[in-house]
Write a structure and sequence with these properties.
This is Transposase (putative) YhgA-like domain-containing protein. GO terms for molecular function: double-stranded DNA endonuclease activity. By secondary structure, the chain is an alpha/beta fold. It has two domains: 164 residues, no CATH class; 94 residues, no CATH class. It is 50% helix and 9% strand. It contains 13 helices and five strands. The protein has a five-stranded mixed sheet with strand order 1-2-3-4-5, with helices on one face.
Length: 349
């Protein structure tokens, strides 16, 4: 994985930006999903990635972008601006974001070419993999409150939208690597369907085994798959890599599972704390409830991990875990994935 991409906080950003850093896959994605009237004029040369981003910091939680320079069949230089929308529901103001970012790019372009005669063409392209269907009109003027007769005199542009949810799984791409990655992204926001498409993911990854590592890393971050499911996918695609990859991802698996268990524990603890807070003060009760929730979440996570690795658990394990202090629970949790027996987990050495 490109080390410069590890600074991208959002897993969707990191995953897709890494994919689009490969010129072959980026070119295929654009040619397959741009309107034919645009794609037919692109030359066979690979797109050149322009290392700039124009998305505001405040919006980077759900928006990211990629800018490519491509050559047309007539030798002109054109730019393709890909804005990637990660929200589960489309952003109604996406046309405004596109306009702002394209203007920012042109301002930077003009600084280096003050003697220009004509501006370069920029084709905006929206990549969307949210759960809800994209129903927003794909033109800027949709956002402008104006009289209908004014439309010919106002700024306007259209932008193609790639909505992964509107494409059948097997038609996401003819490129094997794109197919596997786009399939993973399509269901990243569709948690209710993630278990059902496991075999489809395995099939896609068998055709693109070189992408198994980044795809598994992505699944850990955004899918509901447990350790056994992840092991099964790796085993089906590259069985010789199972132990190595699971060891590499052990910390990530624990972190994600711990976050989910903590969130559930905190919710339960906050409810309990609010009830206690009626008698001892609301703020103090909520703080105690949150602390209890964190401890309960850690214990619940450890118990769930142990039951998957060493089932059936002997009597008394649950009581031992829920009765332990947070530091001891954390120490046990760190040993779960590498321990060969239950005794090794609880060892005092």
């Amino acid at each position: 994985m490109n080390p410069t991409l590890t600074n991208i906080a959002h897993p969707h950003d990191r995953f897709l930006k890494e994919l689009l850093s490969y010129p072959e896959q980026a070119g295929t994605l654009l040619r397959e999903h741009l309107p034919e009237s645009v794609a037919e004029f692109l030359s066979a040369k690979l797109p050149k990635l322009v290392p700039d981003s124009f998305v505001d910091k405040a919006l980077r939680e759900h928006l990211s972008d990629r800018l490519f320079e491509m050559e047309t069949v007539s030798g002109r230089a054109a730019f393709l601006y890909v804005l990637i929308e990660h929200k589960s529901i489309p952003d109604g103001k996406i046309g405004w974001q596109l306009l702002r970012y394209m203007v920012e790019f042109l301002k930077e372009w003009e600084k280096k070419r003050t003697d220009w005669d004509r501006l370069p063409a920029i084709v905006p392209f929206v990549f969307y993999h949210g759960e809800s269907e994209w129903k927003i009109p794909n033109e800027f003027l949709h956002l402008v409150d104006c009289e209908e007769s004014w439309r010919p005199y106002l700024l306007n542009f259209q932008f193609p939208v790639l909505d992964l949810g509107a494409i059948s799984d097997r038609k996401l791409s003819r490129d094997h690597r794109l197919q596997a990655r786009l399939l993973a992204m399509k269901y990243a926001t569709r948690r209710a369907h993630q278990l059902a498409i496991r075999e489809r993911l395995v099939e896609a990854l068998k055709n693109a085994p070189e992408d198994l590592h980044p795809v598994i890393h992505y699944l850990i971050s955004v899918y509901i798959y447990d350790e056994q499911t992840l092991r099964g996918i790796i085993r089906a695609v590259k069985p010789e890599e199972e132990q190595k990859m699971m060891s590499q991802f052990a910390q990530d698996i624990r972190r994600v599972a711990r976050q989910e268990a903590l969130q559930e524990g905190i919710r339960q603890g906050m409810q309990q704390g609010r009830q206690e807070g009626r008698q001892e003060g609301l703020l103090e009760g909520e703080a105690k409830g949150e602390a209890k929730g964190e401890a309960k979440g850690e214990a619940k996570l450890l118990l769930r991990q142990l039951s998957r690795r060493f089932r059936p658990l002997p009597n008394g394990v649950s009581e031992r875990i829920y009765g332990a202090d947070p530091n001891t629970i954390e120490s046990w949790a760190d040993r779960v994935l590498d321990a060969k027996s239950l005794d090794e987990v609880f060892s005092e050495n």
